[in-house]
Write a structure and sequence with these properties.
Blueprint (H helix, E strand, L loop, with lengths): L12 H4 L15 E6 L6 E6 L19 H4 L1 H4 L3 E7 L5 H4 L6 H16 L8 E6 L2 H11 L6 H9 E7 L8 H16 L5 H29 L9 E7 L13 H4 L6 E4 L15 H14 L12 H10 L12 H8 L3 H4 L1 H4 L2 H8 L4 E6 L5 H15 L6 E5 L11 H6 L4 E6 L7 H18 L3 E9 L2 H6 L4 E4 H12 L6 H5 L8 H4 L2 H8 L4 E6 L6 H14 L1 H7 L10 E4 L5 E4 L8 E7 L11 H15 L4 H18 L8 H9 L8 E8 L9 H11 L8 E9 L3 H7 L4 E4 L5 H17 L5 H14 L19 H12 L4 H16 L4 E2 H9 L22 H9 L3 E6 L2 E6 L2 H7 L13 H19 L14 H11 L4 H15 L4 H16 L4 H12 L10 H14 L3 H10 L3 H7 L5 H9 L2 H10 L14 H7 L3 H9 L14 H7 L3 H9 L14 H7 L3 H9 L14 H7 L3 H19 L1
Parallel strand pairs: 2-3, 2-4, 4-5, 5-6, 6-7, 8-11, 8-12, 9-10, 10-11, 13-18, 13-19, 16-17, 17-18
Antiparallel strand pairs: 1-3, 14-15, 20-22, 21-22
């Protein structure tokens, strides 16, 4: 792996198709140790060992190649390595012979003797073994022989071995059966046929071979545990075959057997025999093996990237005697970048961070930089090293930069010699994740002890690695900084759940737009070198949305775009330079996942309510999609995001972070991009968007396509709409303009032919008759797909919809009940605040519209639900309403926007089905009112929280069957607001229901609905017992196993997550329920149902506040993982850290501080967490706070310090602890 991980080219056609070369036949000349690449001044010996029936060169030679890859490829990549290969008689019989015939030991002894002879003048030179299959056992036994050597040269082999790469070698731990199966597979492979009897034959033999393996692992662990006794660690790495062998029907050595417990492993895409044969330097298998060898030989750029010169080495060694350091040089590219003035702009996110500034100033001693692979950590570390060098040319600060932490094996007492000098020392460790697991664990553990022994030494440490849970857990006392963290937080503020809901609902087609995609205007738009707009104008029902969705799929599959959509694979991890105006070059990180061609889309739809008609949400969706796909774009909006975040934290308002204007500015910033980027913005259904700001949004989209004098980003905008005046007036000058009805005749023909084919196959009609119909349809369709009655227009007094309505009127002229039912369906699908499901509509229709003599207290919804509603909808609504499956539900909706316009037409074209908005909102609001009265009737059993808990479960069952309840709770007030002064009738009826609840304030209905009614802010005397209400809701959530019901409960209480997170579990009854359904499971389901993890209640507290308050550590962990804000203040100015420290909640406090909660935030009295912990005598909390950087010598508004509070309460142990901390704090300031 090169610096920042260059990717490799694919195999050339010549290499892929090259002729196979026969393997060399075995002979005595092929046995023994052969030096393939001699080197007088080699720095490492690499020894290759083949397996059963293998050959010392043939095993490693790919078909079509004349020599093994360790001859043709490896010397160029490892020029300081002497390469040897060992051959032996690997006859199968020698491995399955009679018991006691230990030829493995014989081969191992021969290998040791010959290797010792070749190393007479190379004692101490590192050795690396590369072994295939059972050749790995030969290597292992050879090193076991060296434990009790016959001569000193053999002892040197063991002490010099630094790594073994196993390719397809079985390592089944203590599982002898797995080991025996792998061994049998290998032998079966050599016999060219499976042989089940081998398992029996190999039973005893496999045990002998497994003992070699187990003894070897014991020896490796002993070396790892005794580094200080000059036993160097032996690093191990397993390569696993991915493909099976056909005649075995499985992989020869399965992954469970090939992996070495506690050590790294990776796969090679080949079977057992081919996994050792590499065609070229670009072969993925070769790349992986080479990367591992580079790590072990010190050639890995990411592992040796940081610079420190001989002068610094001497300086450090005078301060820290006995420490062996590894000298390293940065890659040339990193050195060049760090010397460039433009690098500073690219690293601004890091250098401007509070964490790095604190570390550089010396107030923060330990910092961990982590992130994704190849996101520039080594460049940052190189820059830090260089800046430290420049800053300290004229100072006495001493510093060390190293990337080889495995070499630190000095005795800890050496630090006592340094302590008296009190120098300033900075330690930089890059790429600690590159160390083997055991080595890394040992290093981090010992380095932690070194830090403790160092005591007052003025030392600061900066470590870097890929994001890794085990490293994070080992560095709990380190502050963490991650380039992606802030970006991820920002993207969360832009994402909203239903951004692509309309797109999902658009019909999928296999082909569309044959003439459209060949149209010169489309070709000009897609192929022009600069930014451009394409306007697709189409009549209602002409298939604009379907075509737009198909176009997106076509763009995603376009080979020319696909090549450009990701960063060039030959450069995807290298530093990238972007030209600027004055010839400057700015370096940017190239992430392998960054796309250089991005497609963002939004489909407006009146049927989706505000989420699908809002221009602000459209912009938010587009910004989210674009910024999600390329991390290099984040700096464009980073500063604005931080400003907005600060403003929101200051005001405490709960509203969307990004405004309409903010989102426009974000998209405008794309014109400043100075690296290669193409962005496609696809906007469908512009005519279905809100009229408000529509003209502005069209002007804005046009402006994005104007040429930028400085930027290199190409922006192509596609807009699809009906021909409407305010759209036509703004887009009339767009050069690329296509009228869909002029180019979709071929698509209509395909649809009609498909319909004819289906009708004929189902026997509905003769083909000859249908062919006549086909010509008529195509002739009179006029570019419209909605062809059920073949009209020339959909709306209008003689249109298609009028024909449907006339049919309904005729059918139900004698049955007003069915006509009324159809009218009510039209009302719900036209005026509902969001699309409604078939089950919601069923309950809506079951709710009485006229009370007459109906008593709601005894009304049963289930008895009044219309049966077979799906079938009846076509009859009741004449085909103007359809049922569409969306995700896991079935949505009822009008077939098209034009149907809505027809029903609302001022000329009342729909006759008895004519609708108006006031009538629609009034009926829906009244239905919601009566539905709530039925579901929450006060006669439901009275509350007895501590005696009859099963009734809570009964209530859960009662609510779970009420499909319309969530809609009514969320949207009742909205419909009343639409009505304005016309809502009196509904308000009067609802207040009658509220008065019933007032008379039964202890009922379930009152307890559950109390806060929801109060949130409506209507004048009412309804008062409920808050304690009982919270208790019941907590129990109810624990009983709920249905996310749908939880979506019902959430509108009842905005603080439902708070209740569950903080509910104290006190008596045994509560514990029994908690055992059935844990609190954490409830929290997870609530958050999945949409509960806001950072919502504040009236006291300014979040769910995490209550979890911390009640000491629920598991809940604290879960909420933090789900993105809970750690630093919010409540109404009293108290943070979570302050509360945990004040109450001695050490588990929660530790977890908060681990995740970067601030330890020094003051409350309204100027008091810190340290102050409260000292006052209350919480020694453990004090230690945690100081460990994570809390200040000791602070004073509150009364002039009192933590020490003052501890003395007042006579906590003498705390006093002593604070005094010692104060001294350390003072020394840190001095030095």
């Amino acid at each position: 792996m090169g610096f920042l991980g260059f990717s490799r080219k694919p195999k050339s056609p010549e290499q892929a198709a090259g002729p196979s070369v026969p393997k060399p036949k075995s002979s005595n000349e092929d046995f023994g140790l052969s030096i393939v690449v001699p080197l007088d001044k080699a720095q490492v010996d690499i020894v290759f060992v083949h397996g059963l029936t293998g050959h010392r060169e043939g095993t490693w030679t790919a078909g079509g190649q004349d020599e093994p890859w360790f001859k043709s490829l490896l010397p160029k990549d490892l020029p300081t390595a002497r390469i040897m290969t060992y051959g032996y008689d690997a006859n199968v019989a020698n491995f399955i012979g009679v018991a006691g015939q230990n030829t493995v030991r014989e081969h191992a002894r021969n290998l040791v003797n010959e290797l010792a002879a070749r190393r007479r003048n190379a004692a101490g030179r590192p050795i690396i073994f590369v072994a295939h299959s059972l050749g790995g056992l030969v290597c292992q036994d050879a090193l076991l022989i060296c434990i009790n050597p016959d001569e000193e040269a053999q002892s040197d082999i063991l002490s010099s071995t630094c790594g073994i790469a196993f390719l397809g070698t079985p390592h089944a731990g203590s599982d002898l059966e797995k080991f025996a199966v792998a061994l049998a597979n290998i032998v079966s492979l050599s016999l060219k046929k499976p042989n089940k009897k081998l398992l029996k034959v190999l039973g005893r033999k496999s045990e002998v071979l497994a003992n070699i393996k187990n003894d070897f692992m014991t020896m490796v662990h002993r070396h790892l545990e005794n580094i200080q006794d000059n036993l160097k660690p032996i690093r191990l790495h397993a390569f696993i075959e991915e493909l099976p062998v056909d005649y075995l029907g499985c992989r020869v050595v399965e992954p469970d057997s090939a992996k070495i417990p506690g050590y790294n492993s990776e796969t090679i895409h080949a079977n057992h025999m081919e996994m050792t044969k590499f065609n070229s330097k670009d072969d993925p298998g070769y790349v992986k093996v080479l990367d591992r060898l580079k790590v072990w030989t010190g050639y890995d750029d990411a592992l040796i990237a940081l610079l420190y010169d001989d002068d610094l080495r001497r300086k450090f060694e005078t301060l820290w005697p006995g420490v062996e350091l590894a000298k390293s040089e940065p890659p040339a590219s990193a050195k060049q970048l760090c010397e460039s003035s433009s690098i500073e702009a690219s690293l601004k996110w890091f250098t401007d961070s509070s964490e790095y500034r604190s570390w550089k100033a010396g107030t923060l001693k330990k910092l961990w930089l982590h992130g994704k692979h190849s996101d520039g950590k080594t460049v940052i570390m190189s820059y830090v090293a260089r800046s430290l060098s420049q800053d300290n040319i004229h100072s006495d600060e001493h510093y060390l930069v190293s990337t080889n932490p495995r070499y630190y094996s000095c005795p800890y007492q050496n630090f006592s010699r340094v302590a008296g000098v009190r120098p300033k020392i900075s330690l930089l460790f890059d790429g600690i994740d590159k160390l083997d697991v055991h080595v890394r664990s040992t290093f981090l553990e010992k380095f932690y002890n070194i830090e403790i022994e160092a005591g007052d030494l003025n030392m600061r440490v900066l470590m870097s690695s890929e994001t890794n849970v085990k490293i994070r857990d080992a560095l709990t006392d380190y502050s963490a900084i991650d380039r992606e963290k802030l970006r991820s937080e920002c993207l969360k503020t832009l994402e909203f759940q239903e951004w692509n809901a309309r797109e999902i609902g658009v019909q999928e087609v296999e082909a569309a737009g044959r003439r459209f995609f060949g149209h010169e205007k489309y070709i000009n738009w897609i192929e022009c070198d600069g930014s451009a707009m394409l306007w697709l104008e189409g009549k209602p029902g002409s298939g604009k949305s379907t075509l737009a969705k198909f176009m997106v799929k076509k763009l995603e599959k376009n080979p020319s775009l696909a090549q450009g959509r990701r960063v060039n694979l030959s450069q995807d991890t290298a530093p990238s330079h972007s030209s600027r105006q004055k010839g400057e070059e700015e370096w940017v990180f190239n992430s392998p996942t960054d796309k250089s061609s991005i497609i963002a889309r939004f489909y407006y739809s009146f049927r989706g309510g505000n989420t699908q008609t809002s221009h602000e949400l459209m912009l938010r969706s587009i910004v989210y999609q674009i910024w999600r796909e390329n991390s290099k774009l984040f700096p464009l909006i980073r500063d604005r995001y931080l400003d907005l975040k600060r403003e929101m934290n200051k005001t405490g308002e709960q509203k969307p972070l990004w405004s309409y204007d903010d989102l426009k500015l974000a998209l405008e910033s794309l014109r400043e991009v100075n690296f290669n980027l193409s962005v496609f913005i696809i906007i469908d259904g512009m005519d279905e968007s809100n009229n408000d700001k529509r003209v502005d949004i069209l002007q804005f989209l046009l402006s994005l396509t104007h040429a930028s004098p400085t930027g290199s980003c190409i922006i192509k905008v596609f807009v699809a709409s009906r021909p409407e005046n305010n759209i036509n007036s703004r887009l009339r000058r767009v050069r690329n303009h296509i009228k869909l009805q002029e180019v979709n005749q071929e698509d209509i023909r395909m649809v009609v032919e498909s319909w004819i084919k289906r009708m004929v196959s189902e026997g509905e009609c003769e083909e000859a008759t249908l062919l006549e119909v086909k010509n008529h349809i195509i002739t009179y369709s006029d570019g419209v797909f909605m062809l059920r009655s073949l009209p020339k227009e959909l709306g209008g007094k003689d249109g298609f919809y009028r024909t449907m309505v006339n049919s309904l009127v005729e059918n139900y002229k004698e049955d007003q009940e069915y006509q009324e039912l159809g009218r009510r369906i039209f009302i719900w699908v036209t005026f509902a605040e969001r699309p409604i499901s078939i089950t919601e509509l069923q309950d809506a229709l079951a709710t009485p519209t006229r009370l007459d003599k109906t008593d709601l207290s005894t009304y049963i919804l289930e008895d009044n639900r219309p049966h077979q509603l799906e079938r009846a909808i076509l009859s009741y609504c004449g085909g103007l309403v359809e049922i569409r499956r969306v995700r896991f539900d079935r949505i009822v909706q009008l077939i098209h926007q034009t149907a809505r316009e027809f029903l609302l037409h001022r000329d009342k074209l729909a006759g008895p089905y004519h609708l108006d908005e006031v009538q629609g909102d009034l009926e829906i609001a009244m239905s919601c009112c009566r539905y709530l009265s039925i579901v929450f009737r006060p006669e439901f059993p009275p509350a007895e929280p501590n005696k009859e808990l099963p009734r809570v479960e009964m209530l859960s069952d009662h609510l779970s069957g009420k499909a319309l309840l969530a809609y009514a709770l969320v949207n009742f007030q909205g419909h009343l607001d639409h009505l304005g002064s016309s809502n009196e009738k509904v308000r009067d009826e609802f207040m009658k229901f509220v008065n019933l609840l007032i008379n039964r304030s202890g009922s379930y209905a009152s307890l559950l609905l109390g806060q929801w009614i109060q949130a409506l802010k209507w004048p009412t005397e309804l008062r409920v017992d808050e304690t009982s209400a919270r208790l019941y809701l907590h129990f109810l959530v624990l009983c709920v196993s249905d996310e749908v019901l939880l979506r019902v409960l959430l509108p009842l209480r905005s603080d439902l997550l708070h209740i569950v997170a903080g509910q104290a579990r006190q008596d045994t009854t509560q514990r029994s329920i908690t055992d059935v359904r844990s609190v954490n499971v409830s929290l997870q389901v609530l958050m999945a149902a949409g509960a806001d993890v950072n919502r504040e209640d009236m006291a300014g507290r979040t769910p995490l506040s209550y979890a911390v308050k009640n000491g629920h550590e598991d809940s604290v962990r879960l909420l933090i993982e789900k993105g809970a804000n750690l630093n919010l203040k409540d109404a009293d100015g108290q943070t979570l850290v302050l509360y945990a420290a004040k109450n001695g909640l050490e588990g929660s406090l530790n977890y908060l501080l681990m995740h970067e909660a601030r330890p020094n935030t003051e409350d309204t009295a100027g008091r810190t967490p340290m102050s409260y912990a000292a006052e209350n005598g919480h020694e453990g909390s004090l230690k945690l706070l100081f460990k994570y950087g809390a200040r000791v010598n602070t004073k509150d508004t009364a002039g009192r310090s933590p020490l003052s509070y501890a003395l007042s309460n006579k906590h003498m142990a705390i006093v002593k602890l604070l005094e010692s901390y104060a001294k350390k704090e003072q020394r840190q300031k001095e030095y």
